[in-house]
């Protein structure tokens, strides 16, 4: 395992980037992403900043009485050398991201929670936060960052798989149990675990603002012989298809958040249908290789 240097010591960052072009590019990409988003991204250590992060998460998840994290936990994470970062629009904290280290032998960081204020949507603050986290991790000799996301949330799937070029590695049914917040509701908390290989050429290209992976086109995949393993009916219900194609397409609902609020039974039906399709395909040797912005996973190598 690579020894993690102390990037707070005088001259460490400049010395490391001078001998490590990938690290230099990572720092530059993080700076460029923050500039493009119009925010300043930095580590959070002061109690006032950590309290702001807790309040931000409580607002995003609608959990004022029971926020997703506590000030005490963030304080301990930061003191122990884990990642607690925030994005500021002027003096206002508008985004935060928290991660902790895996077991030493894995040389990885687990990014546990990230969120951006709703009124900052479209500013790419989340992208700036992730690139700051990546540069921070690379400065410490870390090779991978892992995190989970809800596979039914189309925009997050596109962000993680297409925008960041993260690699799906495991489907986790009802990972957190019932979460009872305004985002997850009473639905099962299935998650897709991804690994972000920080020096992978696709990730480097994605962080530079280009396409990390070749864009996924459902139309092209269908023309090439892909099979619809899970589709959508005209009324928005899931429609199961064959699970034995060489390339399989798995649909998700257009907006699971709206569906959970308006028709929780249908939202739960989608949860079960996507779970069945993806777990079966992966168990049969399939690999989730991309996500079409129109709301389709592409799974290759299923036979």
Automatic annotation (TrEMBL):
Keyword presence, Transferase: yes
Recorded superkingdom: Bacteria
GO MF term (any one): transferase activity
InterPro entries with a match to the protein in the record: Acyl_CoA_acyltransferase, GNAT_N_AcTrfase_prd
Keywords: Transferase
UniProt protein name: Predicted acetyltransferase, GNAT superfamily
Organism for this UniProt entry: Nocardioides lianchengensis
Species lineage: Bacteria, Bacillati, Actinomycetota, Actinomycetes, Propionibacteriales
């Amino acid at each position: 395992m690579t020894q993690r240097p102390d990037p707070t010591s005088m001259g460490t960052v400049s010395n490391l980037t001078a001998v490590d072009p990938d690290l230099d590019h990572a720092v530059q990409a993080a700076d460029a992403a923050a500039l493009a988003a119009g925010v300043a991204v930095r580590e959070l250590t002061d109690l006032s900043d950590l309290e702001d992060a807790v309040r931000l998460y409580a607002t995003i998840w609608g959990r004022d009485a029971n926020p997703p994290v506590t000030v005490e936990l963030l304080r301990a994470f930061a003191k122990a050398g884990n990642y607690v970062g925030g994005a500021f629009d002027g003096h206002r904290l508008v985004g935060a991201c928290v991660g902790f280290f895996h077991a030493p032998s894995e040389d990885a960081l687990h990014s546990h929670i990230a969120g951006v204020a709703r009124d900052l949507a479209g500013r790419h603050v989340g992208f700036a936060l992730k690139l700051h986290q990546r540069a921070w991790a690379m400065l410490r000799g870390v090779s991978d960052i892992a995190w989970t996301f809800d596979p039914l949330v189309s925009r997050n799937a596109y962000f993680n798989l297409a925008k960041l070029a993260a690699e799906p590695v495991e489907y986790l049914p009802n990972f957190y149990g019932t979460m009872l917040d305004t985002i997850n509701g009473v639905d099962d908390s299935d998650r897709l675990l991804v690994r972000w290989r920080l020096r992978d050429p696709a990730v480097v290209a994605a962080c530079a603002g280009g396409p990390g992976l070749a864009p996924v086109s459902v139309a092209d995949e269908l023309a090439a012989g892909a099979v619809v393993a899970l589709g959508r009916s005209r009324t928005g219900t899931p429609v199961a298809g064959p699970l034995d194609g060489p390339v399989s397409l798995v649909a998700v609902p257009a907006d699971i958040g709206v569906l959970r609020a308006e028709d929780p039974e249908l939202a739960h039906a989608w949860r079960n249908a996507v779970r069945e399709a993806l777990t079966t395909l992966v168990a049969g040797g399939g690999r989730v290789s991309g996500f079409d912005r129109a709301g389709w996973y592409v799974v290759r190598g299923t036979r």
